[in-house]
Amino acid sequence: MPQIGFIGLGIMGKPMSKNLLKAGHTLVVYDIVPAGIAEVTAAGAQAGESCRDTAARTDLIITMLPDGPEVETAILGAAGVLEGARPGSTIVDMSSISPLVSQKIGAACAAKGVEFLDGPVSGGEPKAIDATLAIMVGGKPEIFEKVRPVLEKMGSSVTLTGPVGAGNVTKLANQIMVACNIAAMGEALVLATRAGLDPEVVFNAVKGGLAGSTVLNAKAPMVIGRNFKPGFRIKLHQKDLRNALQAAESMKVSLPFTAMVQQMLMALMNEGKGDLDHSAIVTFIEQMAGIEVKKGATAQTAV
Ligand code: NAD
Hints:
Layout: E1 4-7, H1 13-22, E2 27-30, H2 34-42, E3 46-47, H3 51-56, E4 60-63, H4 68-76, H5 81-84, E5 90-93, H6 99-111, E6 115-118, E7 121-122, H7 124-130, E8 133-138, H8 141-151, E9 155-162, H9 166-194, H10 199-206, H11 214-224, H12 234-250, H13 256-270, H14 281-289
Parallel strand pairs: 1-2, 1-4, 2-3, 4-5, 5-6, 8-9
Antiparallel strand pairs: 7-8
Helix pairs in contact: 1-7, 4-6, 9-11, 9-12, 9-14, 12-13
Bound molecules: nicotinamide-adenine-dinucleotide.
């Protein structure tokens, strides 16, 4: 079993690293905030002194950090992972970042004889706890096969989608579909509410048809129940769509719907809603209509 280094012990990194411990792996863990280290060492891990020290003591180093700048600092920066990693070790960055940054880090690793995979996840904290994340990976097939058994301790779906960067392109594609789906749902429910219909009745009427989706089933009840407690935060989704637009620009691809929803997310952050669940995208559309989608509206008007 490889000795594993785990860097980034936040909402996702804590349960993911604990699942590796439960599976019998030896872990060295590190975070710039000591509280995360204390929690995971209490569960049996050893504490690293820095990213470099964590990498020097392990063969496989996993990072789970907020965004590209943090991943660059942790891997390429002073006292970073690459300073400690030995040739032949493997780094798997599981953060959701720009694929352009993944490629830059992959090239820097290759120059030092260190293998690199990008392996972002979908599923959020509950699936991180249950070890049922969907993990989408970019990198060399033989390196993927080598680390697959470790990734399977954290996720129930582990898929290689292409070379380095492909994991994050896949994750961005996922995030585009989810965000645009929520925005479309918002327009639909606002229209129905304005027409005097009960949005819950409308949701129940359409969910079995072609418009039905996992997003609709998860998010429509939250909007109708006015529960925006975060599963996935507005500010993280804004970051993902920004990364999608940057990657798209580098490939000269235009993503009009993504651009529009990214702007809505930024406006919501400026309203202080960055920590609400992304289903609160609907509140942007509600404001434009001057109406709130909520249970119990009765049909009095129609158009
Ligand atoms: P988080 O902010 O809770 O945790 C990130 C951790 O990284 C923090 O503990 C922070 O102290 C640490 N950190 C930052 N810079 C560091 C550095 N230079 N060296 C060491 N540690 C450092 O974030 P999270 O919710 O765990 O998300 C991590 C990644 O997973 C993000 O890219 C996010 O988009 C993605 N993701 C999150 C969810 C979710 O529901 N939370 C779902 C899917 C994917």
